[in-house]
Amino acid sequence: MRWLVGWSSVAASFRAGGYGTGGYGTAGSVGEPEEGRTVHPVGAQLLWGDPDPLWAVGDWRPDEIRIVSVGADTRLAVLGCCAATDEELRVGLFAARGGALRHLSAWPGSYTAVAQVARRVTVVGDLAGARPVFYTPWAGGTAYGTAALPLADLIEAQLDIGHLAALLACPDVPEALGDSTPYAGVRRIPPGHALVLREGSREITGYEPVASLAVAAPQLAPAAAVEGVRDALVSAVRARLTAPRHAPETLPPDPGPVPGMGPAERRAARGGPAPGIGADLSGGPASATLALLAAGLPGVPGTVLGHGTGAGERLLAVTFNDLTVPGAGRQAELERAGAMAANPRLHHVVVTGDEEYLPYADLEGPLTDEPGPSLIAAPRHRRRLLAGSADHFTGSGARQVLDAHPARLADLLMDRQRRHLLRPATALAKAGGPTANSLFVPLTVYRAARRLARTPYRTGIESAADALRSSAADGLGSPRPDDAASPLSISLAALSWTRPGPAARWLTGEALAEVSVRLMASATRPAPSQRPGEARASAALARYAADHRILEQAAEVRSQRLHAPFLDNQVVRACRALPESLRVQPGARATILRTVLSASGVRDLPPGWGTPSHAPSTAAARAGLRQSTDPLISLFEAPLLADAGLIEARTIRKALRAAAEGEPLPLDGLADLISTELWLRRLLSRRGTCWTGTAAPRQRAVAGGVAPPRRPTLRS
Question: Could you tell me the pTM of the whole model?
């Protein structure tokens, strides 16, 4: 786990002693600083010193930390993969000094930028939310970082039970989550915003242009928009290819030939990735696009043996074959992956997984910064990543940035583009199954989209809060929508400003009532400038990016870097420029990526490319739940979530047994509950803090354990 941390103090007198001699910054406990008391992160690398210090913590590579200065008190630190030259970084620093923060987010790659101009410190977050920024009041100033747990340790924070309730009840509703984190007192800035600190005071400002709700923003022509996506993807891939190559640290010696194991399998068994560049090749369009682009760009990898400098370095393509869940859809994907791997620029490795790597099979793992549903399948992903390279491409986020959220149909109506609703409505009618009436489904979809387009933001939020209060009044076991819903019914339910998450049905009435209060409070704030579809799509992307960040931490392989170019700022911007009429069409993602590959010279794709199936992943989750029923029930014998007042243990145990027997319960909701319970147990079992020094916190975060929130009573 790698993170940044720093703070901005109230006055210049709040300074450190001995930065130039290797010392660290001084800081007192909350309140007035005390002279001579020091605190600094464990294992930190000091980037610059007083009065507003900045540290990098973790196993950062030397080329991942770049600092440019244009004066004694004007400097810029960029951490991560950034393709900008030193001169471009200086130009961005000059622009940031004048207040133009968008320049700091416009370079290819994935990185965090921190600019310091005199006593003003600016930390720029990304558009997707994969590189978030957190802050907390501390010692009369403000501490900030790219991880929430170190800040929670710094202020000895307790759990924010209300945030956990909102995370389970409405995981993709920003109005319910707000700027809170699982730690009380630690806040998060929204995606697309920057944190500006001036001598301890803080300001959160957006750096993206805001479009009016009354007048639609000018849209690019479809061909120009797709060309922009292609340029952004190629630049993102090239940014990783032009970075210095890295080999894993020294591994245990190779024991020699082992029957049934090749060199790649023996290396993975020793616990390290292969040197060079690799990529996932699942058979789906997103991972295949990145693998073929990386292998086809000039230079290495992807150089055929005997042709040019560095010849013989091929892109390592990894395919995961789940042996426990056979199916026609998955078999077709494997065949497509094999056909694409016949490219001489690719070296194909197939990783097999048995019952040992099903979801829920291994409930042990490292502590992550926040909870996330990916915790239940982290060992499964780690199995695949161990066979990968030191720099490994993954197609994560392609669906969220390219596909159309159903609520975007309302945006089309607001722009008076009714004719573009016919094809998506017809496709939903076909996906609804044989019982769906193809004559009335388009009319039903049109009515739902029109209702959303005419629903004001405040009315939509208040309606969602009322629905949660009604569910809280009904108590546990109240009626919920059909869990075995068809794609049509799921899309119709998504045509709203907000909707409860799959785990909401198992929360207590008190927890649902608390979330409804948070929603009602957000309804009184100014309405966002985004349209319904754009707002829902942005929220879904932020939710996915946050879980991808947790997956990186839970399945981390030492000396390996996961690269998700679809979550880069420039790629997200290019995808947002796609016209709504193009985005909502069935198969739009595969069509766009096929055009991207064709413009890059890759035209020979296997039949059926672009039609992935999600049935195998659902079947794997159900098989893992069935196999691990007993450990999961033991997990909920005395759950911490019940101590927090969020669930009733008996109800969850009953749901686990029912799901294992095949009842159509929402598996995503159970995954949210199980992963949150696992995270809480790992958090409470940790020892030590992220800080050291004479003024280090006396206790770690959540040292007092889980306690139910204090709710007002008649006596109080």
Answer: 0.91
Q: What is the C-alpha separation between 67 and 45, in angstroms, rounded?
A: 13
Please list, residue by residue across 348-379, b when 16 or more beta carbons sit within 10 angstroms of its beta carbon and e when fewer do.
bbebebeeebbbbbbbebebbbbbbbbbbbbb
Distance CA(182)–CA(372), nearest Å, equals: 11
Task: Give the closest residue to 614 by CA, choosing from 497, 442, 445, 490.
Answer: 490
Q: How far apart are CA 616 and CA 494, in angstroms?
A: 24
Coil vs helix vs strand at 55: strand
Query: Which pair of tokens denotes residue 618?
Result: 């659902």
Structure tokens given for 227: 């060309």
Token pair of 536, please? Answer: 């829902």
Contacts of residue 656, defined as CB under 8 A and 6 or more positions apart, other chains included, come to 625, 629, 632, 633, 636, 670
pLDDT in tens, 399-418: 999 998 888 888 888 888 87
- What is the per-residue pLDDT for 713? 47
What does the alpha-carbon distance between residue 544 and residue 532 come to, in Å, rounded to a whole number? 18
Structure tokens at 119: 């006593």
Calpha distance 452→390 (Å, rounded)? 46
pLDDT value for 704: 81
Of the listed ranges 181-185, 324-328, 447-451, 685-689, the least confidently predicted one is 324-328
SS3 call for 124: strand
- Round to whole Å and give the CA distance between 187 and 55: 19
Pairing of strands 74-82, 65-71: antiparallel
| Chain position carrying tokens 């893992």 | 624
Query: Which of 631, 627, 622 has its CA nearest to residue 670?
Result: 622
Query: Is the Cβ–Cβ distance between 547 and 676 less than 8 Å?
Result: no
Nearest residue to 264 (alpha-carbon basis) of 208, 347, 328, 344 = 347
Report the alpha-carbon distance of residue 159 to residue 176 in Å, rounded: 17
Q: What is the residue type of 512?
A: L
Cβ pair 412, 584 in contact under 8 A: yes
Q: Which long-range contacts (CB under 8 A, 24 or more apart) does 452-459 make?
A: 452/407, 452/409, 452/410, 452/495, 452/496, 452/497, 452/532, 453/410, 453/411, 453/413, 453/414, 453/532, 455/496, 455/497, 455/532, 456/527, 457/497, 457/523, 457/527, 457/528, 458/523, 458/524, 458/527
The DSSP line for 478-530 is: -----TT--HHHHHHHHSSS----TTGGGS-HHHHHHHHHHHHHHHTSPPPSS
255: buried, middle or exposed (CB in 10 Å: 19+, 13-18, 0-12)?
A: exposed
Q: Which of 236, 126, 132 is nearest to 179 (CA)?
A: 132
* Contact call for residues 296 and 326 (beta carbons, < 8 A): no
Helix, strand, coil content of the chain in percent (nearest 5): 40, 15, 40
Rounded to the nearest integer, the mean pLDDT of the chain is: 85
Residue 79 in tokens: 């951490």
Q: What is the rounded radius of gyration, in angstroms, for the C-alpha atoms of the chain?
A: 25
Q: What is the pLDDT of residues 202-230, one digit of tens each?
A: 999 999 987 655 555 677 888 999 999 99
Contacts of 565 (CB under 8 A, 6+ apart): 110, 233, 236, 237, 240, 290, 393, 571
Q: What is the pLDDT of residue 433?
A: 55
SS3 per-residue string spanning 167-211? HHHCCCCHHHHCCECCECCCEECCCCEEEEEECCEEEEEECCCCC
How many other CB atoms sit within 10 Å of the CB of residue 687? 5
Q: Is the pLDDT of residue 29 over 60?
A: no
Interatomic CA distance for residues 623 and 621, integer angstroms: 5
- The pLDDT tens digits for 525-546 are 887 778 899 999 999 999 999 9
Write out the two tokens for 662. Answer: 């095949």
Contact 281/387 with Cβ under 8 angstroms?
no
